[in-house]
Write a structure and sequence with these properties.
By secondary structure, the protein is α/β, with parallel strands linked by helices. It has helices spanning 22-34, 59-72, 86-97, 127-153, 155-158, 165-176, 180-189, 222-228, 247-251, and strands at 2-3, 9-10, 17-18, 78-83, 102-108, 205-210, 233-237. One of its GO terms (molecular function) is chloride peroxidase activity. It comes from Salinispora tropica (strain ATCC BAA-916 / DSM 44818 / JCM 13857 / NBRC 105044 / CNB-440).
Length: 257
C-alpha cells in the first residue's frame, strides 16, 4: 500500500502490470503464476481497495497513476495488460511516457481507437447511448450493474454453462464496492479519442476481442484498432462476450482466431 501525489492509496499485489477488473483476474492470474511469471495488479482509483477521490477520472491521470506504479516499484521489461476500460491506461501510458519500461502490451476487449460515433468515425457508437448510460448510473447504479453484467457476460448464453450464479453475484458485489462517484465519472471516459495515441505504441502488442461483445462492439473497437496497429497480433474469439479473458479464453485463447 502506498500513497501517490494525487492522494490515492493504492492497493497492490505482485507483478504483472494490469488493469483487469478483479472478477476477470482469477483464471488469468492463476495461469500466469503457474507459468512462473511475477504478477502485480492494482485497483484503479475509486475502485476495489484503492481510495475513492473525487478527482482524476480521465485517461491522462489514469496513465499518470500507472506510471507511478511502475516508477515506485522500479519495474522494467514489463508486459502491460489492459482489459476494457483499462486498455486506455495502456495506450495513453505508452503515448505519454514511452516504452522504456515496457516489453509488450496486450489489449483485451479494448476501447480503442475511438468509441464515439462522429463524422470522421462512422463505426462508433451514437452519443445518446452514453447519455443513457450516464443517466442510468446516476439514477440507480445498482440496477445498472445488473443490466451491465447481463451484457458483460452475455448471460443468456453463458449462465449455467460457462458462468455460475455465484460468479455473476461476485461480479455485481465487486462493482457495487466502487465509489458512486467513480461509477458515474467512468462513463464519460469511455469516449476518449485514442487515435493519436496508437501510432506511439511501439512494442509488440496483442489485440484480443470477442465477436459477441455487446458492450464494446468489435466493429467499433478491435477491428478498427487493428487497422491502425496492423503489426499487432490480432485474435477474435468467436461468440465471446466482453468478458473474453474469462473461462473461454483460459481454455485456448487462439481457438477463435
Amino acid at each position: 500500500m502506498w500513497r501517490q501525489s494525487y492522494g490515492v492509496d493504492w492497493h497492490r499485489k505482485r507483478w504483472f502490470s494490469n488493469v483487469l477488473p478483479r472478477i476477470v483476474r482469477t483464471l488469468v492470474l492463476t495461469a500466469l503464476l503457474q507459468a512462473g511469471y511475477r504478477v502485480i495488479t492494482y485497483d484503479r482509483r475509486g475502485f476495489g481497495q484503492s481510495s475513492q477521490p473525487t478527482v482524476g477520472y480521465d485517461y491522462d491521470t489514469f496513465a499518470a497513476d500507472l506510471n507511478t506504479v511502475l516508477e515506485t516499484l522500479d519495474l522494467t521489461d514489463v508486459v502491460l495488460v489492459g482489459f476494457s476500460m483499462g486498455s486506455g491506461e495502456v495506450a495513453r501510458y505508452l503515448s505519454h511516457y514511452g516504452s522504456a519500461r515496457v516489453a509488450k502490451a496486450a489489449f483485451l476487449a479494448s476501447l480503442q481507437p475511438f468509441l464515439l460515433q462522429t463524422d470522421d468515425n462512422p463505426t462508433g457508437v451514437p452519443e445518446d447511448v452514453f447519455d443513457g448510460i450516464s443517466t442510468a448510473v446516476t439514477a440507480d447504479r445498482y440496477a445498472y450493474f445488473t443490466d451491465f453484467y447481463r451484457d458483460f457476460y452475455n448471460t443468456d448464453d453463458t449462465l449455467g454453462t460457462r458462468l455460475s450464479e455465484e460468479a455473476l453475484r461476485n461480479s455485481w458485489n465487486i462493482a457495487a464496492g466502487a465509489s458512486w462517484y467513480a461509477s458515474s465519472a467512468a462513463v464519460p471516459t469511455w469516449i476518449t479519442d485514442f487515435r493519436t495515441d496508437i501510432p506511439k505504441i511501439d512494442v509488440p502488442s496483442l489485440i484480443l476481442h470477442g465477436t459477441a461483445d455487446n458492450i464494446l462492439p468489435i466493429d467499433a473497437t478491435a477491428r478498427e484498432f487493428h487497422k491502425r496497429l496492423p503489426e499487432a497480433d490480432y485474435i477474435e474469439i468467436d461468440g465471446a462476450p466482453t468478458a473474453c479473458s474469462g473461462p473461454r479464453t483460459a481454455e485456448n485463447p487462439a481457438a477463435g482466431s
